[in-house]
Design goal:
- The chain has ten helices and nine strands.
- By secondary structure, the protein is an alpha+beta fold.
- A hairpin with a 2-residue loop joins strand 3 and strand 4.
- Strands 6-7-5-8-9 form a five-stranded mixed β-sheet, sandwiched between helices. The protein has a four-stranded antiparallel β-sheet with strand order 2-1-4-3, with helices on one face.
Length: 388
């Protein structure tokens, strides 16, 4: 309490005491005249002798002043206690409100983490999930509508429409605006920090925008990495000159088809083909002409096999063909077409063909086709060599 308030408080207490003393003297005078007939009420009541009336009245007045001061102190203590209690209640309400807001924020970010932690979840699914989660984190979820825009695509709650009670935040990805979050109330509410929105809600929408930007960047990095890995994996199985399977790709393909043939029991055929005279072409005309011969040979094969068949370049001038779910008659038809294409292109080739034996598998068929190919090359003449 300041000094001025203390002086004012004392004056009021003295005034109350004087007023109470006057009231007391007035009542005593009436009692002296009406009841005690000129005798003094205080002296009669307390059995005091003459000459004590002035001191008695001073004592009574002092008691009233003391009572006024004591009463004011008690009332002031009660007022201060009530004010402190009200302050604590308001403080508790504020803390409870702040805690509830933090709980809503934590629930939101937990929900986002649950959606995005699965590496298979797409950016579109994350944005759709975020749109549905945001209203539950705002002060009035029942009138909160949300729209997220990302690269021109919009993800919105069912009843979204832009109103004048709106706040937004940009989504910045790689230092460039990529989209925005918009939160709208569908009816007017009391003004808070930013229109009807709390300061905590401004902080929250900014945090959501930053969190989404980080998630998008991470997802994009993962997608790019997977695409790079897929391209690298594909390149590691592809022959750079012809675009056919290379030896690694061929071996994997042969193993996969062997498993399928064992499960389903269908027949397969392996054809091994080797260009005749490639070394002479390289020596006389150069490797560029030899490479062109290899590419034309590959094109002849690819143009005549079926879509399901597999073709590989497994050596410098050696090709392999896997005719899938193919019987002997169909395999001969395929080879007739390929030979005709080679003939038109003026390419001489030695080849061998073998059907898969269920008891020995495709690896043995490949070995047999390779043996027959070398047999044809050794004889310097073309002939069909089929081992069943």
């Amino acid at each position: 309490m300041s000094n001025e308030n203390k002086i004012l408080f004392t004056h009021w207490c003295l005034l109350v005491g004087v007023v109470l003393a006057l009231i007391y003297w007035f009542i005593e005078s009436i009692l002296d005249a009406a009841v005690f007939h000129g005798r003094d009420f205080s002296l009669e009541l307390l059995y005091l002798g003459d000459g004590s009336e002035l001191w008695l009245r001073a004592f009574v007045a002092g008691m009233f002043v003391f009572f006024g001061i004591a009463l004011d102190f008690v009332l002031k203590h009660l007022r201060d206690s009530q004010q402190e209690q009200n302050r604590l209640i308001e403080q508790m309400k504020k803390h409870t409100h702040d805690l509830q807001e933090r709980i809503k924020e934590l629930k939101f970010f937990y929900g986002i983490d649950e959606i995005s932690k699965n590496e298979e979840t797409t950016i579109e699914e994350i944005l759709e999930g975020t749109t549905l989660l945001i209203p539950t984190s705002w002060q009035y979820p029942e009138i909160t509508e949300v729209r997220i825009t990302y690269k021109g695509t919009k993800y919105a709650t069912k009843n979204f429409k832009k109103t004048r009670w709106r706040q937004s935040a940009e989504i910045i990805v790689d230092r460039r605006p990529a989209g925005a979050i918009e939160v709208c109330y569908t009816r007017e509410m009391a003004d808070e920090y930013e229109g009807p929105f709390l300061k905590e809600e401004r902080n929250l929408i900014d945090s959501i925008a930053m969190r989404l930007a980080r998630i998008i960047q991470r997802k994009q990095a993962v997608l790019a990495l997977r695409e790079s890995e897929a391209r690298f994996e594909q390149l590691s199985k592809t022959d750079g000159l012809t675009g056919l399977l290379n030896r690694r790709g061929w071996n994997e393909c042969l193993a996969d088809e062997e498993h399928r043939a064992q499960r389903h029991g269908h027949s397969c055929c392996v054809i091994i083909a080797d260009l005749d005279g490639l070394k002479e072409v390289n020596d006389r005309q150069g490797h560029a002409i030899g490479d062109e011969l290899i590419r034309r040979s590959a094109a002849c094969i690819q143009g005549e096999v079926r879509t399901i068949d597999k073709v590989a370049r497994i050596g410098g001038d050696e090709f392999a063909i896997l005719a899938i779910e193919c019987g002997e008659h169909a395999a001969n038809t395929i080879m007739d077409r390929i030979e005709a294409a080679w003939s038109v292109a003026g390419i001489r080739v030695s080849w061998g063909m073998a059907m898969r034996d269920p008891n020995s598998g495709l690896q043995q068929a490949m070995a047999e086709a390779d043996r027959l190919m070398y047999e044809m090359k050794g004889n310097h003449r073309k002939r069909r060599s089929i081992s069943v």
